[in-house]
DNA sequence: GCCCGGGATGGTGACGATCACATGATGGTG
DNA sequence: CACCATCATGTGATCGTCACCATCCCGGGC
């Protein structure tokens, strides 16, 4: 084809002005029924498709939202992205993604700028944004929702109650009779990870238990394995709360290598409830995170902000749910 | 801010015409050094950013590539997407994603149309496209590369040699002394899955072994578990080639539940080498797929097509590599 | 001294759509 | 029957950029 047909082509075929075509396509009320039908037919006949670029240029709206994610293949990231995709599509929006190789403010800012160059209407940051960062500076006041962030801050955040999540996991283990619970945490650059850690600590303190030192991982199963090797060598460790299922797989593997059985010798609770969690050995007790749902809600909220910048975020707190499987057992 | 600054704003500040600003920004040669500097300063001062939409409108290039993926959280999909993202960014391109809830031709066509509305310059289809489908009809002759497709077809495809992959896995098991190898395949709608199955069958036939009936899964661990329950009940099954690691987790779990040990009683080979594969119980022997690399190559090829539609695809065949871990052992 | 080539710049008109406003027809009302 | 509200449609300007062509100026060759 030499050139895609434009509105004036359609207008010519239908014998009306381009403006009328525009009205028909935008479902404007004030168009005669006969004209409308004629235009529809002409559109069909010419195979016309509205040019979104031209449209975006003049309206200032691209109907695209930008998503910044960390450049990893973690389950959580892809699940959130999936929720975002689905919700955006349902609302007739497009999704443009920018990954950032690092979590430094610079790298995130670069990703954001790339998306702004794209002309996105709103932004979902699926990366941790520290509380001391002014979101306005970062995003130049584009409607933005952060998926990993402190709910206490002024920024718009969609998140489950991570403190509660840490607490639920820990309480479950304490309830099984364990004296205390060890913790393999996520990187302290992530707000979600820190939230889980505080919940864990709070639960232990509330129960008057000893708070063991925190071990840190980087979300990868390999880092779980490293930490599992340490924990497995300490006979007093009977219960571990791991801040992600992927790390939990590593921990369990390391324990197995050291001859410590799960759950007979050590109980392990993960976090996320990834698709493979039920198929771990043993099936992993974990705290479910509604990733898709978070993505969906992030989109809904961004779109609300896009439509009306004055929208106030009502943080609906989603309570995480413990999914009990076989990696936890009463203290032997 | 009331309105982002435009080229004419910058031009006014620099005391030149908008055209000159455009030339400076496009690194056109014919601009005086002094003028160039002045314009650069003005750009800096006004915080000007070129409007990509307007640019795309007039040039007909959006510097965006569209990706169609299946709406799932499978590791493979997110890893490929990751490779695409990285490569696109490196080339200064943007990525817009559209997920399709089903693999029907209609659903895929809808996703493609959404992306075309977006004005993408090229397309990567990370979904299976049947050989009898005219890619041209689907994509209206937009530069397109398919990631899951038959290499034999006329379409532009980036893929590893799946037949070889199936063969490698099967040969490995036969080499360990197993009489034959059972197979849990992926859905027969996927070309990759079918390739693996043919490789498996060919390896068995070449070795003059009995070819057992194929069991089919849907890539999910749950489907692996279902099939594992069947296989585990048959004492004659000593070796299984599973078409994805995620299903392999399910198979292994089912075998464990039935009291069959891996690898002592049954050897299992997976496919993909997902991040969790080394942390399965036991660590999974599998065939590595270079997902990120495939994504990267898909982008490179699409961009070549965008630049020069006459580009001919040289299918560099990537040979898959067996990664031996502990889920396979010589026949006991 | 004249002419020519080419580097540096500016002006104009698309690109494809929408918006604000203008126009003409219609019909109901006092 | 004059008047105005309402609906249906057209006109012109505009969004921000780049392609194309015109213009100006300078230096060099003959």
Description:
Chains A, B: Pfam families: LacI, Peripla_BP_3. Chains A, B: InterPro entries: HTH_LacI (IPR000843), LacI/GalR-like_sensor (IPR046335), Lambda_DNA-bd_dom_sf (IPR010982), Peripla_BP_I (IPR028082). Chains A, B: Keywords: DNA-binding, Transcription, Transcription regulation. Chains A, B: This is Transcriptional regulator. Two copies of one chain form a homodimer. By secondary structure, the first copy, chain A, is an alpha/beta fold. Chain A contains twelve helices and ten strands. Chain A has a six-stranded mixed beta sheet with strand order 6-5-7-8-9-10, with helices on both faces. In chain A, strands 2-1-3-4 form a four-stranded parallel beta sheet, with helices on both faces. In chain A, helix 1 (7-14) packs across helix 3 and helix 10 packs across helix 11. The interface between A and B is large, with 54 and 55 residues. Strand 2 (94-100) of chain A pairs antiparallel with strand 2 (94-100) of chain B. The first copy, chain A, binds a DNA duplex (30 and 30 nucleotides) through residues 6-8, 16-20, 22-23, 26, 29-32, 35, 50-60.
Key terms for this structure?
homodimer, 332 residues, alpha/beta, 434 Repressor (Amino-terminal Domain), Rossmann fold, 3 domains, 12 helices, 15% strand, DNA-binding
């Amino acid at each position: 084809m030499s050139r895609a047909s434009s509105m004036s082509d359609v207008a010519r075929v239908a014998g009306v002005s381009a403006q009328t075509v525009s009205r028909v396509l935008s479902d404007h009320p004030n168009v005669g029924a006969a004209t409308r039908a004629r235009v529809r037919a002409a559109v069909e006949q010419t195979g016309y498709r509205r040019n979104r670029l031209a449209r975006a240029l003049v309206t200032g709206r691209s109907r695209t939202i930008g998503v910044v994610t960390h450049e990893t293949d973690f389950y959580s990231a892809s699940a959130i992205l999936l929720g975002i995709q689905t919700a955006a599509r349902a609302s007739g929006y497009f999704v443009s993604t920018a990954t950032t190789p690092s979590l430094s403010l610079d790298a995130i800012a670069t990703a954001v700028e790339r998306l702004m160059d794209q002309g996105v209407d709103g932004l979902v940051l699926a990366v941790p944004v520290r509380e001391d960062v002014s979101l306005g500076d970062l995003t130049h006041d584009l409607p933005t929702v952060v998926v990993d962030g402190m709910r206490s801050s002024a920024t718009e955040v969609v998140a489950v109650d991570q403190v509660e999540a840490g607490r639920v996991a820990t309480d479950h283990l304490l309830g099984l009779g364990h004296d205390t619970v060890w913790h393999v945490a996520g990187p302290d650059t992530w707000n979600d990870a820190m939230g889980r850690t505080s919940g864990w600590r709070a639960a232990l303190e509330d129960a008057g238990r000893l708070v063991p030192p925190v071990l840190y991982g980087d979300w990868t199963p390999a880092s779980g394995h490293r930490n599992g090797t340490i924990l497995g060598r300490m006979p007093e460790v009977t219960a571990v709360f791991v801040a992600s299922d992927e790390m939990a797989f590593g921990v369990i593997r390391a324990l197995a290598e050291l001859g410590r059985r799960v759950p007979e010798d050590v109980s392990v609770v993960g976090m996320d409830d990834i698709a493979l969690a039920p198929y771990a050995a043993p099936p992993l007790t974990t705290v479910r995170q509604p990733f898709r749902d978070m993505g969906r809600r992030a989109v809904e909220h961004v779109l609300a902000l896009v439509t009306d910048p004055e929208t106030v975020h009502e943080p609906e707190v989603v309570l995480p749910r413990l999914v009990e499987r076989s990696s936890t057992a009463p203290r032997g």
